[in-house]
């Protein structure tokens, strides 16, 4: 995926089993926990491209969050701050070759950033 592509959508849920059944029945999404991501079932849309996760709803995570691919999270977060946004979560590892972070734009929207390659991306 290229810089600026939307790569992932996290949906906050309170009941994983109910949410898994709901989204599978509603959209036909294939939803499963992958090794290393227990407690965070990931969904795949029928197009084989779109996907995301069902994540526990929590403080600061009460609305769906899109993740955008960037070449450098560090550089992007600097631009966020220079443009009047705020860093909500610093660069955090997902794997040895991938990271994520979140920021809040000047209008209060929380957006995720993704940098790197995961095993899921290699398939």
Automatic annotation (TrEMBL):
VOC domain segment(s): 5-116
Gene3D superfamilies: 2,3-Dihydroxybiphenyl 1,2-Dioxygenase, domain 1
Superkingdom field: Bacteria
Pfam families (UniProt xref): Glyoxalase (PF00903)
PROSITE patterns per record: VOC
InterPro entries: Anthracycline_SecMetBiosynth, Glyas_Bleomycin-R_OHBP_Dase, Glyas_Fos-R_dOase_dom, VOC_core
Protein name, as recorded: VOC domain-containing protein
């Amino acid at each position: 995926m290229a810089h600026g592509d939307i790569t992932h959508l996290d949906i906050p849920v309170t009941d994983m089993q109910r949410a898994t059944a709901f989204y599978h029945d509603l959209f036909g999404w294939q939803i499963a926990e992958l090794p290393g991501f227990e407690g965070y079932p990931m969904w795949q849309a029928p197009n084989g491209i779109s996907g995301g996760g069902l994540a526990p709803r929590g403080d600061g995570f009460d609305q769906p969050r899109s993740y955008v691919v960037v070449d450098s999270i560090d550089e992007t977060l600097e631009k966020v701050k220079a443009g009047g946004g705020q860093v909500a979560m610093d660069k955090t590892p997902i794997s040895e070759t991938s990271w994520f972070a979140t920021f809040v734009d000047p209008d209060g929207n929380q957006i995720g950033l993704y940098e790197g390659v995961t095993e899921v991306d290699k398939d």
